[in-house]
Amino acid sequence: MKKQLLEQILIKKKHKEEFALITNILTGESFIFEKNKNIEKNFEKYSDEINNYFNNKQNGIIENTDIFIDTYLRPIKVIIVGAVHITQYLLDYAKDLNFEIFIIDPRGYFASEKRFPNMNIINKWPIEAFEEIKTDSSSALIALTHDPKIDDPALKQALKNKFFYIGALGSKTTHLNRCKRLKEAGFKEEEINSIHGPIGIKLGGKSAPEIALSIIAQLVSETYKS
Amino acid sequence: MKKTIDEKILDEANSWIKANHKVALVTVIKTWGSSPRQVGSKMIVNEKGDFSGSVSGGCVESSVIEESLQLIKGNMQFKKMELKVSNENAWEVGLACGGEITIYLEIIN
Q1: Number of domains observed in the structure of chain A
Q2: Alpha helices in B1-109, H assignment, sequence order
Q3: Which of A6, A75, A76 is the closest to B13 by Cβ?
Q4: Which residue of A has its CA nearest to B76?
Q5: Is B28 helix (H, G, I), strand (E, B) or coil?
Q6: Does a structural domain hold residue B3?
Q7: Are A122 and A116 in contact (CB under 8 A)?
Q8: In terms of residue numbers, what domain contains A162?
Q9: CATH number, domain with residue A196
Q10: Which residues, numbered 16 to 45 in chain B, qualify as contacts with chain A under a Cβ-Cβ cut-off of 8 Å?
């Protein structure tokens, strides 16, 4: 592989682009495939198969050929509402996973650069903050303030956009009250039931790093279900 | 489909190259049976035998490092290699889990 090709791959990853690296393992040639762009001449005859693999987000050797396809997927957008203690540990656990994280908190003391260096922090109320992030059904929401003023608007946005994962921190009572409010706001029962609340898988621990671990575990597990 | 893994190996490969190391990139291109790492898994090796990443759960990495060093020292740019468990080499190399993998080794230059 040429150094320049490696650099191109890294730039594309940095820009969160979706692409595939196609290699002929017999000749050593490789090129970067992108949807709706021209396929390099020597690979043209495999065009259909390459597109097929790419559309199915698959890696592998095209049957009866020497062409290997390595697909690079866009990271999963994870929006965390609440720049709280648990959030700091969530970032630790998530750093080696394919997540692009945004932190929303309207409270200045919480959403400070010092607490979260080099992170996407949006120091605004959720409704305004969501306007800055393009989300869809492959996005996830982790609501951690357990303050209805902050969490509820974010939960509503996530439900409307059909996020594949929505989790909200809070005790069983807090969650029951939350469900009631969402019902009053017109959300259907099945939508409300899709919220993971209290958030996280049952590990037993109650400290910030343990809760963060239980949340990340649940998020990863839901990623592979959807 | 979504996946939550993000191989940071290529970033590391780039920083090794910037530090003037010779780097071989090894990628799992095919698996059979219960191989521990999936297709697309990566590992890098430099001229000193330092390595990062993995192509198995530690079962075949030693021999992959040796192959990579030969590639770095020789004239070849790339190589395909199948790693199977057979009676003769099960002691040294081989996936204890009974899997088989094909890997592709290439020099980054």
Answers
A1: 2
A2: 9-18, 61-73
A3: A6
A4: A28
A5: strand
A6: no
A7: no
A8: 76-225
A9: 3.40.50.720
A10: 17, 25, 27, 29-30, 38-40
